[in-house]
Structures are given as C-alpha cells and as structure tokens.
C-alpha cells in the first residue's frame, strides 16, 4: 500500500508539469494506464491468493484493487503523457540530427563493448570458470553420450557448446571448457548490446539516451549473471538483439535507395538462420514477424525481405526434419508446447474432481498421471505436470476433446490456471523477488538419473560467491531500480513503445516490436512464471526498439535516416560549420 500512496502523492506534481507544458489529452496513454493498473491489481491477487476471485471476494483484496486503480491510473496516465511529449520533442531533434548527420557525441562501438565487459568482470571472476547450470549439463550429457541426443535443446546449439567445451577437455580441463564458452558468449553479448547502442546513435538518439542504455546493460545484474552461465539463453538473447537491430536498420535504409545494399539482406538472413537454430522460439519469431516485415517495407524491397525471412525458416525445417533424424537426434516432446493446457487440466482435477466424467478421466489418464495431478500442480511452474506425459497422437485427440468440454463447464478454473502461470510477466513489484536459481548462480552437479564424468568446480569459495549472490538478490528490493530485475517492467515498456507508435500513426514501425511481442506471448505459455531468463531477449532489444519508434516518428519530420556516405564526406557537418 505504500507504493500506492506514493503514486497518489506523485500525481499532483505530475499534473502540474502536464499543465505547465501544455500536454494535450492522450487517449493512448489513458488506455495504457488502465491496462497497467489492471496488471497490478490482478498480479497482487494471484501473488497472494492464486486466483482472480480474490478481487471480488476477499475484503482486503477488494480494497487493494480499488486503491490500485485510484492511484495507479492517474499516476501512470500523467507519466505516460509526459513521456510521449518528451518523445515528440526528441523526435524533432533527432530529425534535425539525422538530416545534418550531426550525431550525438558518444564513445565508439569498441569502447562501449569494453565498458560492458569491464562491468561484467566481477561476475566472470567470482563465478569462474562459469556456472555449470542444469540445462547446460544436460546438453553436455547428450553431447557426450551419457543421455540420448534430443532436440529438446536445439541440437545445433548443443553441438556448438559441446565443441567449445571439448576444446577445454582436450587440453585437460573441464573447467577450461566451461570458461571458453562463457568467455565467448560474454564477448558476443557485449558486442551485440554495444551494437544496439551504436545503432541508436545512428538513429539520432541523444547522448543522455545512449548513456542510459549503456548503463542499463552494464549495471543491471541480469547481464553479468547470465554472461557467466553455461547455457544457451545468453547467446540466443544476443542473436535476438542483433536480429531486431538488422530489421530496424533495413527498414530505415530501405527508405533511401543510396544507402540500401544487398549486404543488409544477407546479414539479416544469416541472423535469421542463427536465431532459428539457436532456440525453437526463434523460428516462431521469424515466421510471425515475416508478414509485418513485408507489409512495412517499400514495394521494391518486399520480395527481397520475404526471401530474407523464408530462407531461415527453410533452413530450420530442413535441419529439424531431415538433418536431425539422419543424426539420430530425437525430436522435442510434444508436451513442451502443451504445458499451459496440462496446467489447466491439473487445476481442474484439483479443484473440481467430482465434475470429471469417466470418459474425460480416461482421456486424461491416457496422457497424464491423473491421480497425481492434484499433488503435482503448482501454479507458477508446469514441469512436474507435463513431466508425466505418456500420450501419443491418438490419445492427444481424445485429450483435446476432454479439455474443451471441461473448460466449457468451469472456464474460471482455466482462467486461473493460465493467469497463475503468467502474471509475473505483467506484474511489476519489487516484493515479488527472484532467487539464485533464476540468475543461474550455481553449479548443479549431475542431472538426476544420469551418470556423467564432468569435473567442474568454482575457483572461489562459497563466501565470495555468496556476497555476489546477496548483491544480485538484494538488487530486486531496491526501490525503482529493483524493478529492472522483474519481467513486468519490460512488458510495460514494450506496450508503451507500441502505444507511442500507434499514437504517432507510424503503424509500419510496429513491425520492429513484433519479435518481442511474439516472445512475450510465448512467455505466457512457458513452463515458468515471471522467469527473467525467458525475458532476457526482450530486455536486450528493448532500448533499441523504444528509440526506434521515436526515430520512425522522426522520419516523418525529416526526409532521410542520414545522408549517403559520399554526401557526408562532401558536406561539412553542422558541428563543423558552427566551429568555422
């Protein structure tokens, strides 16, 4: 309630600023404010009671919901209205900078990458050689034959990680193998994030915005924590950031014939292939973004842009349908995509066991361990329920019919199960803390049921690592700054960026947000609620995406992204003209 009170008090000075600056009524800001306030009320209800019904049945929760709407809606509306007004002014200045090629003074690309690596160095040293995580160990188990090879984790990524790991093994040290992968992925992450900051500069971002983006990547614990973790997600987040950056630059360059060349398409195609093969979600991102990319491009570029999207998808299909079977790599289990449905079934069996027909029970038993579902059900994690999957295609058909009929009788149970598994991606509150597991600051040891021979251990003692872990976990509770460790903040910012694009009628610029929106939807049906690891790619691309919608607005005010290279050499910059 303290945060609600502070928001209510802050509304008065914000209202004064809005009036002083003459900010007009913002309908988009109002819609967003109501939506975000609803996220807070619903999230609080699920955090404390696990159901939306608490907002209508529990007196304290009813009071909280009313207070949340009363305080958050005005506060968020006024804040968003001021932010939109600032973005409008920033777009005007960006247009001037882009026309004159008088870009902001900021450190060069390599210096920015160096700053990031230096900021993450404490994590890389304290947790050296790197945290050998559960997922990473399981991938190495498959790579070295301790477990059957599977595409549960993309086999291309497993092979890449295994190849690097084996270099260290060949030199006599599993620790070295982990360190080589961690060092490589930390370097790639630094280059990708520094590249996004440089891209923002080319799009006319001012020095303050560039410094804020670089500080976000340097200071927020998630980046250093995941840089030192031996797992696939860090590299995928870097590739995702690169893909979004190339999409944005292609869109801007396509509006200038002099600046557009085939290299942009080749780079985008290569990044798309890497994205699809690095993680299964990458294929969904490329496929669902493709229609928006094609629609947003000028007509002369659309066929080429379509090819840049289709080639990665074709590569994904060829590798998964033909190459993996030839290598005896098992496909990923169907239960991996059905976790949200299985959670709804498990919650139904737990809350309404007497309202399950014999036919429905038989259909469920053919797929899941029916009797164990009430005990296995945990609202924020689906692994234990989907881990009992034993079905086949025929059994799944009967299960889907049972799932639909049960949902018709008790839709509220299904709503509760769904929201209980995803509210953390909408809810922004420092009290909803994460832990060591979320940051991957641990060595797991052997995967249960698998005997391996890996010898990986930290170089520093538990007391040293404990201090860093305490810092990471404590960051979550720092007022305002702690929100950077929570998924909900990034959903809010992503929706605000989309709202600004709608407000400025730059509909075509929305395509650059689609990759993150696709991943956000995937997060909603992911196995873990509010998991920062799943949000990491969105976090990586978001600063660039937020500035891109401002730059797209600037393109409406200024004709071009920047003068062609020859023109920049021939004409002195505005700064040089002022100096003379």
From TrEMBL:
<feature type="transmembrane region" description="Helical">
    <location>
        <begin position="303"/>
        <end position="324"/>
    </location>
</feature>
<feature type="transmembrane region" description="Helical">
    <location>
        <begin position="178"/>
        <end position="197"/>
    </location>
</feature>
<feature type="transmembrane region" description="Helical">
    <location>
        <begin position="235"/>
        <end position="252"/>
    </location>
</feature>
<dbReference type="Pfam" id="PF19484">
    <property type="entry name" value="DUF6020"/>
</dbReference>
<keyword id="KW-0812">Transmembrane</keyword>
<keyword id="KW-1133">Transmembrane helix</keyword>
<feature type="transmembrane region" description="Helical">
    <location>
        <begin position="510"/>
        <end position="528"/>
    </location>
</feature>
<protein>
    <recommendedName>
        <fullName>Glycosyltransferase RgtA/B/C/D-like domain-containing protein</fullName>
    </recommendedName>
</protein>
<keyword id="KW-0472">Membrane</keyword>
<dbReference type="InterPro" id="IPR046062">
    <property type="entry name" value="DUF6020"/>
</dbReference>
<feature type="transmembrane region" description="Helical">
    <location>
        <begin position="64"/>
        <end position="87"/>
    </location>
</feature>
<feature type="transmembrane region" description="Helical">
    <location>
        <begin position="264"/>
        <end position="283"/>
    </location>
</feature>
<feature type="transmembrane region" description="Helical">
    <location>
        <begin position="27"/>
        <end position="43"/>
    </location>
</feature>
<feature type="transmembrane region" description="Helical">
    <location>
        <begin position="209"/>
        <end position="229"/>
    </location>
</feature>
<feature type="transmembrane region" description="Helical">
    <location>
        <begin position="107"/>
        <end position="134"/>
    </location>
</feature>
């Amino acid at each position: 309630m303290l945060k609600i009170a502070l928001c209510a008090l802050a509304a008065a000075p914000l209202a004064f600023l809005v009036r002083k600056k003459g900010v007009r009524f913002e309908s988009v800001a109002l819609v967003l404010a109501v939506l975000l306030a609803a996220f807070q009320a619903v999230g609080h209800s699920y955090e404390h009671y696990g159901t939306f019904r608490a907002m209508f049945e529990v007196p304290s929760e009813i009071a909280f919901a009313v207070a949340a709407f009363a305080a958050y809606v005005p506060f968020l509306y006024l804040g968003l209205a001021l932010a939109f007004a600032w973005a409008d002014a920033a777009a005007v200045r960006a247009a001037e900078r882009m026309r004159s090629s008088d870009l902001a003074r900021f450190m060069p690309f390599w210096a920015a990458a160096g700053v990031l690596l230096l900021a993450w160095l404490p994590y890389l040293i304290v947790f050296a050689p790197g945290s050998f995580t559960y997922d990473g160990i399981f991938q190495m188990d498959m790579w070295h034959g301790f477990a059957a090879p599977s595409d549960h984790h993309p086999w291309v990524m497993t092979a890449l990680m295994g190849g690097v790991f084996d270099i260290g093994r060949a030199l006599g040290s599993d620790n070295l193998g982990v360190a080589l992968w961690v060092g490589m992925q930390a370097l790639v992450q630094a280059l990708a994030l520094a590249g996004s900051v440089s891209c923002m500069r080319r799009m006319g971002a001012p020095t303050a915005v560039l410094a804020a983006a670089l500080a976000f990547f340097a200071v927020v614990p998630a980046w250093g924590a995941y840089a030192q973790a031996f797992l696939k997600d860090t590299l995928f987040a870097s590739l995702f950031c690169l893909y979004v950056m190339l999409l944005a630059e292609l869109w801007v360059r396509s509006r200038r014939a002099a600046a557009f060349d085939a290299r942009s398409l080749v780079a985008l195609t290569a990044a798309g292939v890497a994205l699809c093969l690095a993680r299964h979600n990458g294929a969904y991102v490329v496929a669902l973004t493709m229609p928006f990319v094609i629609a947003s491009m000028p007509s002369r570029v659309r066929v080429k842009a379509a090819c840049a999207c289709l080639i990665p998808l074709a590569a994904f299909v060829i590798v998964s349908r033909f190459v993996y079977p030839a290598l005896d790599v098992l496909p990923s289990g169907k239960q991996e995509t059905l976790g949200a449905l299985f959670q709804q079934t498990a919650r139904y069996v737990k809350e309404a066991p007497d309202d399950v027909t014999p036919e429905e029970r038989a259909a469920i038993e053919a797929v899941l361990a029916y009797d164990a579902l009430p005990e296995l059900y945990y609202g924020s994690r689906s692994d234990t329920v989907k881990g009992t999957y034993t079905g086949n295609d025929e059994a799944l058909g009967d299960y889907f019919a049972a799932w639909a009929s049960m949902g018709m009788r008790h839709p509220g149970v299904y709503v509760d199960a769904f929201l209980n598994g995803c509210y953390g991606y909408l809810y922004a509150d420092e009290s909803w803390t994460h832990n060591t597991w979320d940051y991957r600051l641990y060595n797991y040891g052997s995967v249960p049921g698998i005997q391996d021979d890996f010898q990986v251990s930290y170089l520093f003692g538990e007391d040293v690592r404990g201090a860093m872990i305490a810092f990471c976990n404590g960051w979550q509770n720092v007022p305002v700054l702690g929100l950077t460790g929570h998924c909900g903040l990034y959903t809010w910012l992503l929706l605000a960026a989309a709202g600004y694009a709608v407000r400025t009628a730059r509909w075509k610029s929305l395509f650059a947000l689609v990759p993150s929106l696709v991943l956000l939807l995937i997060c909603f049906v992911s196995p873990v609620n509010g998991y920062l690891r799943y949000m990491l790619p969105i976090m990586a691309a978001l600063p660039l995406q937020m500035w891109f919608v401002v730059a797209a607005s600037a393109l409406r005010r200024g004709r071009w992204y920047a003068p062609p290279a020859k023109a920049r050499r021939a004409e002195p910059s505005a700064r040089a003209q002022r100096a003379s």
